[in-house]
Amino acid sequence: MFYFWHSWHRAQPPHLNRLRLKAFGYAMRKLLRVILKIRIEVRSHLLTAESSNNRTTPKGHGLSYANKLSAHYLDLARTPVSKDSFAGVDVRFSNEFEALECELGKAQSIHVCGQVDWLKILEQSEAMLHTQSKDLRVAAWLTWALYQLESFQGLLAGLCLLHYLCKHHWPEIHPAKARTRAASISWLLPRLEQALGEDVAIKEQLPLFQDLLEQLKGLEAVCTAHLGNEAPLILPMSRRLDNMIRRVTEHASQPAVIETVVAQVKQAATQLLNPGAHIETEKEAHKALRAQQESARALCAWWLKQKATDVRALRLNRVLPWLAIDAIPERNAEQITLLRGLPPDKLRGYQDSLQRGNYADLLVEIEASLAKAPFWLDGQRLAWECLQGLGAELAMRELEIHFALFIQRLPGIVELRWHDGVPFADPATRTWIAAQVMPRLQYPTDSPAVDIADSHAPWEQALEEAQAALLREGLKPAVQSLRQGMQAAKGARERFLWRFAMARLCFSAKKYELAKIQLEALDQRLQSPELNAWEPELALQVLHLLHHCCELLPQNHPVRERKEETFRRLCHLDLERVIE
């Protein structure tokens, strides 16, 4: 049979063979991943509990997947490499070690294409720790690979392994030099700081993060005892995680959130695994849509728990709840509907959390409420403010676009009220909609015409490239490209034109307040006679764009004053264009 397959394989065109090999390799990697999970499940049932003095596994939260994963890798740490040597030999110069370094180097290399194969890192690191060497460098790489593949459950398992090796086998493990051991753990620290950022929702997986904190504190104590002043700086990160946990526990309400999420996940899994019948009636179609919405809630909750700014969760949590809404609810002449808003105590709790800065955990709660209350428009603003607090510009833009399309599809939705007369959108939400949401319906480059004296000037070409980058990457990278050009400008006139290009970019991005600040500074500079003598038309272009910004901004007393003052000057300098 092998001879037949080999002969047939050689007879095929080379490109087909490459495709088959690639597909075969992908299938084998998926199979290995499944085998790894099965092995973890089986070995977790065979493990016996150690005495309380040697216990480093997470404590008593039931036989969860996180506990099984931690038990598996703790067993790996306990198992000697051989009968003669617990820690094996130093593998620093082995081919396997260099292969791991090469794979990890892809993350920093600008020449190597492709992403790091974290499953490969996990498998080879685990094999080395099991059969060749109990090496802290390899253990740190394994810990980060576990996080990449298993999220915080994997991170906990890796830290359990590291903690156990350092606590119980410090004299034996590799590398031998204290400085190299410290560097091995220090390699992991900036990555852990990135993983445990402010956009992580702790509240709904509190026991897991408490176990993470316990392992970090234990690892910090062991390293300090053995390394002294050369110990890696684990304490600042453990303190930050401790503060995050304390901030949640001090204001915790009901501890039943995790059970609710588990029930949702079980329900979603049952629905997904059930093949179901064919859809043949409108009733069956509606039932199928409801099932998809329930499944999506559990999926969004999972995504947000891993990263509160996950754009996939924000997108899905708006598409499905709004999918079947084709018309605004029934209402009377006062725009009052029969719908009920969120309870006042819950709204007060949301406001308190927002003021305390608990953005990540609050966003998870708000998104859960929005999934069940698609007409809660104030909730969209609260979610946006949480994203703003987390500095998630891409996620903010995603929310703005979906919400703008929803408002456009349902004219009059903003004016509606709940059954008790409370508006769907309070004044703060209406102002936010006018300033941040509705401008998304306009094409980003739809700005007032500017008379360009030299379209081939470097600032004009850079502006054109920045406007293209604005659509792909957002405002910040686009502004950075213009700032680089402005720093290389020669003379005051060129710097002025570069800054004017930056103001036009802000206007294209609908950041009218930013554009207004830039234009006011440019207008102030043009008040000097020598600068105004460069190009008289340039002053008019600045004034026209400044006036247009004032028209589009939310109207308050300073904005109205600036708009009227600019209009008077335009009437004096360019009456013909004002009339047009």
From TrEMBL:
It comes from Pseudomonas corrugata. It comes from the Bacteria. Residues 79-188 form the ImpA N-terminal domain. InterPro entries: ImpA_N, T6SS-assoc_VCA0119. This is ImpA N-terminal domain-containing protein. Pfam families: ImpA_N, T6SS_VasJ.
